[in-house]
Amino acid sequence: MASASSTYQRRYDVFLSFKGEDTHNNFTAHLYEALCQKGINTFIDDHKLERGQVISPELFAAVENSLFSVVVLSQNYASSRWCLDELVKIVECMKSRGQRVIPIFYNVDPSDVRRQSGIFGEALAKHDQESLENMGRVQSWKDALTQVANLSGWDSRNKNDPLLIKEIVTTILNKLLSLSTGDIENMVGLDARIQEVEKRLCLESNDILMLGIWGMGGIGKTTLAKAVYNKIRSQFEMCSFFENIGEDLAKKGLIRLQQKFLSQLLEEPNLNMKVLTSIKERLCSKKVLAVLDNVNDPLILKSLVGNQDWFGRGSRIIVTTRDKRLLASHGVINIYEARGFSDEEAFDFLRHYSLKHELSIDDFMELSSEVLDYAQGLPLALEVLGSFLFSMTREEWRNQLNKLKCTPNLKIQEVLAISYDGLDDKEKNIFLDIACFFEGEYKDYVIAILDGCGFFSLSGIRALLDKSLITIDSNKLMMHDLIQEMGREIVHRQSLEEPGERSRLWFHEDIYDALKRNIASEKIEGIFLNLSHLEETLDFTAQAFSRMSKLRLLKVYNSEDTWRNFKDTSNKEKCRVNFSKDFKLCYDCLRCLYLHGYSFKSLPSDFNPKKLIELSMPYSHIQQLWKGIKVLEKLKFIDLSHSKHLIETPDFSLESPTSDG
Q: Which residues are catalytic?
């Protein structure tokens, strides 16, 4: 997900709340100066507002438009209704906007603030007496003091002012630097998604809850998790956003992973762990918010968030991943499926980029239409393309878009390919077969074909579903256009120059080249040729297929036909493939043979593909498939529709006991 124009504009990094007579001319003045010196845009009332101005709405707007509020709780703070009203507003923004609140207990005991005892109790008792007609207001002050006093902050009684100010400024600066632009600005479509995740988190409950955010690469899981984290983190005692945790495990190992996790939660950067420790012993009494981003190994969950009782009441653990199985294996059943942009959201996103460049309305509409069609709602693709296309001239971006049709964008492909890299060999074969040949086909049909190839396709397809590499719609296997493009690019890179050296061929020009020049090798496992794309006749000769000893799938079809729907029989027998008289295949590995318009009266006499699952020859000149009996025990699908010359069919009950007809 990417940022667009804000619904409200942040004007300040820090809002300072303090009692003027206590700290205005000393601690707060020095703190304000130190913050400004570090480039931290800080609001302080007597610098920004005229004296005597009513507290609302301008002061409240300043609170709302700040990322942080630093509350200097000094001895006379609670005696000021102004300060207390300000504090109530700060707490409100902490809850509703995710504002970070940092209390500084300046020469006061934090427990006095928390319990409203001592000088704070005296001040509030006086307010009680003076505000008998408005007890609700006083109670809201008490609640605000308690909530702020429970937050992590600084006690000035333990440090001198210069050292304390240095620590505060350093902490705020580091937190600001850790925020991306996307965290500070509102984002296209993000508010609704945040609300959906918050509902699943049930923040009002004191139960301990784990939530998975699952989806394909580039869909915006991290952005969403970070936005939710920033909004709700103020409600927790300890917080950690562990980004790209899978990479950390691979590079640094499990002990360093635990060390970094605890360092973030405990805010102790100098931890030095030699062995794995018990997370439960450290955190079981703490209300924790932890986001584990991009988890790719169950060991991460086992070692960092093993059981819910490792954390205190009210804790929330959020896990982002591409692998749904990983969540299930850890018992995470509360799963939010991240979704891409709607057309309207994608258009709004691109409009954000167009504002930075001078584009005519016509150019913007043309370019946006092309980009939206290519990206198919994937935020990563929109971000990558929007970041450079809109800075080009019309001729340049038109040229770039034409290039994308044959050369995928490398940055997008690298992100998407991470999910593929996590598959085992059989799952990779299933994925590539679907990407190259079977996208849009019925699941049961594909399972039958691929099971016949020894790929254990039922569990393999489940793996692809769980990794968001495919979806199922109306029992058909579907794939995002960019995921399919990624799969096909993997095959293309097996041999950039020679298509005959690749495992799968589907592009008519590559097939034509490989067969015409007789360069098809033993590496080819599948060929799907769409006749409607051929401009001239292609010869299928024995020589062209002689080296394809691993050929599993051969389909010559016409996409102008509706799959398995042959109501229109006119002109369908015409075929731009010329089957030579000596045409034959290596049958040892063949599972699928689909030859539209096959021109001979029967199959070769040596035709005996014992592993064949499908035999389809619509609109063929077949009169008789073969003479005698052939045992094809694996055959499940046969189609001889519109083969008008057909005289006789074999007795499949004898020849193929498992045939479906």
A: 86
